[in-house]
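Appendix C. Worked example: Glucans biosynthesis glucosyltransferase H
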Amino acid sequence: MVFITSITGSWMMYEIFSESGITTLEVVLLILFSITFLWISAAFWSACIGFILQIFDIDPLKLSRNKHFVGQTENVALKDRHAVVMPVYNEDTNRIMAGFEACLLDMEGTGQLEHFDFYMLSDTQDPDMAQAELTAWNALCQRVGVLSENIYYRRREKNLHRKVGNLADFCQRWGYQYESMIVLDADSIMTGECMLTLVKAMQQNPMSALIQTVPIPVRSQTLFGRFLQFASCLYCPMLATGQAFWQTDSANYWGHNAIIRVDAFIQHCGLPTLKGKAPFGGDILSHDFVEAALLRRAGWDVLLLADLEGSYEEIPSNIIDYATRDRRWVQGNIQHLGIINGKGLHTVNRLHFLFGALAYMSSLVWLVMLVLSTIDAVVRATTDTVFFASNYSLFPSWPVVKTEYIITLISATVIMLLGPKLLGAIVALVRRREQFGGGLALMSGAFIEAVIAIIIAPLMMFYHAYFVLNVLVGKNVSWDAQGREGRMVPWKEAFKRTWAASAIAIIWGGITLSLTPILFWWLAPVLLGLLMAAPIIRFSSSLYLGKLSRSLGMFVSPSEVEEVPALSRLRIRLANMQPQDEVLLSCPPMPAQQWQDMPQQSFAYLSSSVDIPSQRLASENKQQ
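Step 2, the predicted output written as structure tokens:
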């Protein structure tokens, strides 16, 4: 479906260009158009599949309307021991402690805490923050009492290899005790039932090495944060269902809110340092995609449970912080193109690498297309049309415009871009309307969300294109802790981050308006989004407008309609946080260490440790 759609769209674009004689510029435009049309076709058809599966309540992995994959674990008894790990790095101390405590208490409420140990793995380098963490940890141990026997705090003095090194250090020292580990992010919240389901699902599927959930955003207070949170809650379940269908046992890993089989991770996820300079050399930045690919290469299954609830995260509260986070991801995802031809990788994992890079590089492609289209239109507008190519020609050569192809192609593009939003809203209206405050609140919110998405799209295109160019010229980025709590962006910062985009919009608009007015009106939505970038950033980051939208019933999310106990505990704990004096308390020391080497993997050849049949057989025998 993807290739048929892409080939048809590219052929129609070729026909549009070729009727009046195709130029070199138009050949370039055709190539760029084909890339972007392939990208949006893949996203569209994946969404359509997710829509069909969700509307008819069909499990994407079993393809049956019986009990879902998640439902298979209801009567499974827990075996072995499991770790819940939260890597942190220079984070808000109150937030990470409150989130850690909420997850711990929710697990205790299930009556299964005896099978779990909780670890906070700190890579914090700021001395004051490190001391604040230790003080808060001692206070936490005092609050939870006897439960402190199941929790541990470890801080590395040097955060070698970032989060990758943090988790590797834990696995090599203490991984021998655990069958699996649930990886949380600093802003993650998972209910006890969700964590139990993950463990049981892995027990029931001995060939699985990683099972990923769909983290749903919560706790957003600004207008932008609530808009983004609403969109994620509305569309992500459907989109994830479509992905789970075509990924099957080769799903992706998003770095958190997932369960990993510890032994498989140790044996096959030792990441090498890539040869060469940035953007393709050095430490592997977006390690999660690569770890999923290495596990699949070794014969293990990597699954996405699209219908599992109880997995939450937090998102940036304004466009600048959101773009800053994307800047880190841009570099990591483009780096994957350097290993896309790695030895033995599964085709679907190569697609993950490709799609991850295209998610950001497509913005640069779109921007280049708009610029080249403008150049082409200006050249045509300032050049006299030649009706007689030769002095001896008896008949004129009339320019031919295939209007029907143009209308069809524009309509198809709009449908593929906005269609998934409509399908997601329909699924929610049929199956989950109460979770969004009712049908009217859901549909009005979906309409306003689509309008806002169109307004901010030009600015995000500009940011992503700029980030991609920075990466391609070898400019590195620091991977620091991201801001998560709501803040209103000052006018000075808003203008500082957008003046270049606005200046380009003014020049671009002036040229097209004077030379080719028709193109100007086509470009008007893009130019307006760039011109108004600073006010958009400023007002969308407003906490007041965020609270007002909630009071008006706009962008209502499921977590606001019915707050689960884990989120309620987090909210209450954060509201009651008080400045803490140092508490001298003897918390449980770290368990005894038993070092395990983590073999370094290679993309140039297959390691001798990759023995698919024996790995699966060993796993099955262990489960039996």
